[in-house]
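Database export, one record per block. Field names are fixed; values are copied verbatim from the stored entry.
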Amino acid sequence: MTAAPALQPVIVGAGPAGIRAAQTLASHGVYPVLIDEAARGGGQIYRRPPAHFERPPATLYGTEAPRATAVHSALDGLQTHIDYQPDSLVWNAQGGQLDVLHGPTQTTRTVPYSQLIVASGATDRVLPIPGWTLPGVYTLGGAQVALKFQGCAIGSRVVLMGTGPLLYLVAYQYTKAGASVAAVLDTAKLTDQMAAVPAMLTQPAVFAKGVYYVAWLRTHGVPIHSGVRPVRVLGDHRVAGVVWADGAGREHTLACDAVGFGYALRSETQLADLLGCRFAWAPLHRAHLPERDADGRSSVHGVYLAGDGAGIMGADAAEWAGELAALALLQDHGVAIDAARMQTLRGQLGHLMRFRQGLERAFPFPTDWATHAPDALVVCRCENITAGALRACVRDTGADEMNRLKALTRVGMGRCQGRSCGVAAAEILAQATGKPVELVGRLRGQAPIKPIPIHLQARQVRQSADAGASA
């Protein structure tokens, strides 16, 4: 197939969505640019270890090894058909250009674009508890990175807690790798999971895999407690244990030297925000997300959204959405595409939605978290802002919107730019004001969307000022 000669789309993110988008474009004679923050493509779910890492895919990815290998092989086969730029963090977007930091050389460059596919992926959704800032506390995703990329566990006796499918996947991967998992503490109740079975049976193979993980963990002696409430992490200078409450409110103490925790995932939407995409509240995800049509077109002409960065749907859906967004881009630029294939992909994504709803029923967000958060709890660790400080701001100033709260307290102004604390701060604000969380707003994306060396940002500001003066 022949593509328009001036067409060179840019794809941000080399996870399942970005790789399939690049593969689709290349198969239509287009030479895309694929920019990825990681040294090797695969994304978080299929994070690829260093080249000479000795552990085989079956050990690293378990039952997901065939899918991981297929995604990795697809990227390897594209090397001469795309402009692949690894180790490159897109930290800003403005005026049809992306600002990109090359990690190994610590240099920044600009990459122009006319057509852009954003496949920015997701990160852990964090709801802190007292003690979460102690050394030895990791997110579930961080614990998984340590295992996949560095071949090590986060501790010798690990407690994993929170909720969501990732909780059980990480527990399975850790135990299978020989690590000691002291317990899995799930805030979801067994009744939640049983009620979700009909919806989850719409994807029987995926459902069976989840059942297998739980059965395997129990068979191998890993205690699993459901319907719990994490209370605090114990320790003076590093983790020494956790305290959790059961469904009856009784507290239990469990010794450990590391904790991995998280409450499913949240979409990385900062780049879409900087690009000017329109956002709307998505009840299923309990988040404001960039709007897109069924094929991935955003509200901004030439910008397409794919994968978990536009809504958490999982790795399979990310591959389909990446291909679909690429086909939509080609279609919009007059390139002949397979319309039947687009319809098939839409159908697959639509069919998966009921399963996704089942997951939310099985692993619900703990909506009472803010009620139990003590005033002394550090919500924003970058700026050392406590839940009490946020509540006092609401009480003293009447602040009832996230960006107003940010301006008055500095919550979300640190290195994470609200990526870690934003969800928790919004829940505290909603609880303090008595407003539904969807009405307190969201933190607006700001550059840099991830930390970069300050001297590089200062240079960028000078260059922008010089360009404006010359214009």
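Remark 1: The mean pLDDT is 93.
Remark 2: Residues 339-362 form the longest helix (24 residues).
End of record.
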